[in-house]
Amino acid sequence: MDGMPPKQGRTLDISASGLSLNFDHKLGTGDVGTVSFELFVEGKAQVLTCRSRVNYCIFSGDHFKIGFQFMNPDMATMATINKFLR
Fold first, then answer.
1. In whole angstroms, what is the distance from residue 86 CA to residue 83 CA?
2. How much of the chain exceeds pLDDT 70, in percent?
3. CB 32 within 8 A of CB 2
4. Which of 9, 61, 81, 83 satisfies CB 3.0 to 4.6 Å to 21 for a cystine?
5. Residue 1 above 70 pLDDT?
6. What is the pLDDT of residue 41?
7. What does the domain layout of the chain look like in residue ranges?
8. Taking 70 as the threshold, does the pLDDT of residue 17 lie above it?
């Protein structure tokens, strides 16, 4: 998120409009930052980066489930995500 050092999470789910992560740290709803994630498409790893907004942050046991909504992703990012989702 903006103003924070990079953090790592584990992807739970992805859609054309966003993704959900397991995360060790709490984030506030409405926080905005850059999210980078890796997808395997056609046998190749592709790292995607997109500005995103936190839609929800739910404490679940020893971690947080955080939902991010993509903000104006570029066409190449959307094409890769759509290819992955097929």
1. 5
2. 93
3. yes
4. 9
5. no
6. 92
7. 9-81
8. yes
- Let me know: does 21 contact 9? Beta carbons within 8 Å: yes
Tokens of 17: 């409009």
The arrangement of secondary structure in 9-81, i.e. its CATH architecture, is Beta Barrel (2.40)
Q: Would you say residue 43 has pLDDT above 80?
A: yes
Amino acid in the structure at residue 49: T
Distance of CA 48 to the CA centre of its chain: 9
Statement: residue 4 has pLDDT above 90:
no
Neighbours of 5 (CB within 10 A): 5
Cα 9 → chain centroid: 9
pTM of the model: 0.84
Cβ neighbour number for residue 86 with a 10 Å cutoff:
5
Which backbone phi and psi does 81 adopt, to 5 degrees? -65, -45
Cα-to-chain-centroid distance, residue 38: 10
